[in-house]
Amino acid sequence: MLKLTTTPTAIAAASVIFTKLIPFLFHTLITQLTKNINSVPLFTQHHKKLSKMPFAFEISNSYGFVLAAATSAFFVNVLHMARTGKFRKASGVAYPNAYASHEQAEKDPNAYKFNCAQRAHNNYTESLVPAVGSLLIAGLNFPVASALLGATWSFGRVVYLYGYTSNAGPKGRSFGAYFSGAADLALKVMAAYTSYLVITSN
């Protein structure tokens, strides 16, 4: 068994790192980010200043639509939870089992739909961070277009959920997948382009 020991020198070094070096690096990073963000013209037009943060940058008033679209994704998650809970109760699959067994799903339509609802929810949580992240980044340069695409993505995910848990099963998710997938891809491209603009701005 590995035994860890500490010495006064090691403790002193750790103290310097945590009290001096890390705050210095964090301050330098924030300073550079603030400098780069404020140098981009799109942040200075029709703006609201976020003054309650350790640093301030300016965003378009239209960015509120982006925030609203991002917020809609949270309610879609609540809808997933309700849908999954409904079929869990109907199927009798007890916690902490994540899915009904193959045998249960073959015999009980409710257990099969529970598996579909659970898989739809898992797919949603897998996609949530990249989609909302792309939305928030792309919205800095394309606020209205990004907000529309974000709302489209959320709507597509609802269609995906109800299609997956319909009598069509996995085949029912196709339309929602294409619908939300197209919006997601567009947001990722726009986010990449926005990142490029920030990096190359003078």
UniProtKB/TrEMBL annotation:
InterPro entries: MAPEG, MAPEG-like_dom_sf, Membr-assoc_MAPEG
Entry's localization field: Membrane
Gene3D superfamilies in alphabetical order: Membrane associated eicosanoid/glutathione metabolism-like domain
GO molecular function: glutathione peroxidase activity; glutathione transferase activity
Record Pfam families: MAPEG (PF01124)
Annotated transmembrane regions: 12-30, 62-79, 128-155, 175-199
SUPFAM superfamilies: MAPEG domain-like
Keyword tags: Membrane, Transmembrane, Transmembrane helix
Keyword Membrane: yes
Gene Ontology CC annotation, any one: nuclear envelope
Membrane topology annotation: Multi-pass membrane protein
Name of the protein: MAPEG family protein
Species of provenance: Trichoderma gamsii
Organism lineage: Eukaryota, Fungi, Dikarya, Ascomycota, Pezizomycotina
